[in-house]
Amino acid sequence: MLNRYPLWKYLLILVVLVVGLLYALPNLYPEDPAVQISSARGNVSLDENQLERIRGALDDADIAIQRIEDQPNGVLIRLVDGSDQLDAREIISGLLNDDYTVALNLAESTPAWLESLGASPMNLGLDLRGGVHFALEVDMQAAVEQRLQVNASAMRETLRGARIRYRDTQIDGNTLTMTFANAEDLSEARDIISGEFPDFQYQTPDAERGASLAMTLTQQKIDEIQDYAVQQNLTTLRNRVNELGVAEPLVQRQGPNRIVVELPGVQDTAAAKRVVGATANLEFRLAARPDTPASETETLAFRNDEQRTAELMRDVIITGENVSNASTGFDQNGRPQVNINLDGTGGTLMNRATRSNIGRSMAVIYIDNKTRTRTVMEDGKQVEKREPYVERGIISLATIQSALGNRFRITGLDSPTEAQELALLLRSGSLAAPMYFVAERTIGPSLGKRNIEQGILSVEIGMLLVVAFMLIRYKAFGVVANLALATNLVLLVAALSMLGATLTLPGIAGIVLTLGMAVDANVLIFERIREEIRAKMPIQQAIHAGYERAFTSIVDGNITTLLVAVILFSIGTGPVKGFAVTLSLGILTSMFTGILVSRAIVNLSVGGKPVKKLWI
């Protein structure tokens, strides 16, 4: 019999529709503004007394709480008003110590029965939720120079152990040059160094004084160092973002030397930029002895008193890379300090350096990589050029009383805030190379809310116009097309939610375009049915022919559009990818609803029945 589906096909369509409806439902429940408290150490939990103090402090500040929920690694405090988030975080941070991380969040309000099915709402992008977007560029040449500094220190220690005299070491680009008193020392040093450092090309150019050995990194090693620098910085940034406690952050590599950071929902953008972009690191060095050659020493000023200086060894004992954990506290005089835990390598190096230098001073040096921008003329045009520079300052110079191990403390910090940020940076890991902001974009939560409202309005207007056109043009069959269109929207939202896709403004544009294109299949089918009826074909046969003969044209048209969407996704960046994802899913759902769902409705309403006149 014409225009009848077998039972299994009706059941299949019904199952798809029910599943789509269930997984689209969570998007009807808006997220709640919240403050998330999590353990910084992973083994510290809030007790009832602390929760009561927090609840009382928020009540005193007239901050309304919806409810407080226990989580595996902390608690989540849901607020009534999103404008209270910043104040709530400041109050809670003041009541807790460094064992906890207090962060802003947007908490899902999906009912428990939907969560038990694994249903969750779509993730909202930066332009809809609000937040900050940073693009940072890794200084690749600085990465190479830092590695050369480490190699130079190791080479000097090796030569001192072999009792080979050297005069000076210099770094120029990718080349490290060491000067010796005579050719014999140079030859012996080259034999030793080349065995331990195989990643260099060795040359002996003429030197004005004595003999010199030029060591240039191979291109393969340079590429390896630069790639490692980007990967290490990527890991460090992810750790820092985790310390901030941002929900659904994006930290990814872009191109050979850039990293993109997106922090949805972040309101305190100044603090986010300060933590994400911080390039601070530490170095621990011994104070120079009076008889130390000038080539092995360096004079540095104190951070809080530039008139005061100290003569230090160039060789570094350890850096911030060897810190495994850091927390803040106060010394016996009530001044802020940072308590340091070192990893195994760092503890061994620190113990080796201090046990043989008891009574000698050791300095903690704070290093900050910064940039300054100046305007220069190039080819008759004013061009802004970024000049990186490094600030080094001593924050502590103390006498070694006994051999140090894996634990010690740093004093001499200006404020508790500086101590907290330094501890955070040391916990999250040091940067392998300096980074600089090259782009910054901030979207406020109010603008994100307005974008959502305008996006929903555009979908509503687009759908209303399509519905009106189909009703006017195709009458009763227009109702069929509109039911299929509504089903298409539900399935598209469900698919985006199930895949965990992030919805952005370009994504909403893709949805609007999908709604406009979704009825194309029905237009082709209905126009074909009209032609068959005008050709005096019986109504049931005309309906059957309309669906069967329009199928090839529908598939061809949608496949070409799908190929374009796939190309956009493969070569595009963030916004273009968002548009391509919604467009691709929309094409698939449109074909399903435009062909199968609409025909199922037609079959159930007029299929196999004696119809004398068709309202189309």
UniProtKB/TrEMBL annotation:
* Segments of skewed composition (Polar residues): 324-342
Q: Which organism is it from?
A: Modicisalibacter zincidurans
The record places domain SecD export protein N-terminal TM at: 2-104
Protein name in UniProt = Protein translocase subunit SecD
Domain of life, per UniProt, equals: Bacteria
Any idea which UniProt keywords this protein has? Cell membrane, Membrane, Protein transport, Translocation, Transmembrane, Transmembrane helix, Transport
**What gene is it encoded by?**
secD
Residue ranges, annotated region (Disordered)? 324-343
InterPro entries to which the protein is assigned, alphabetical: SecD (IPR005791), SecD-TM (IPR027398), SecD/SecF_arch_bac (IPR022813), SecD/SecF_CS (IPR022646), SecD_1st (IPR048631), SecD_SecF_C (IPR048634), SecD_SecF_C_bact (IPR055344), SecDF_P1_head (IPR054384)
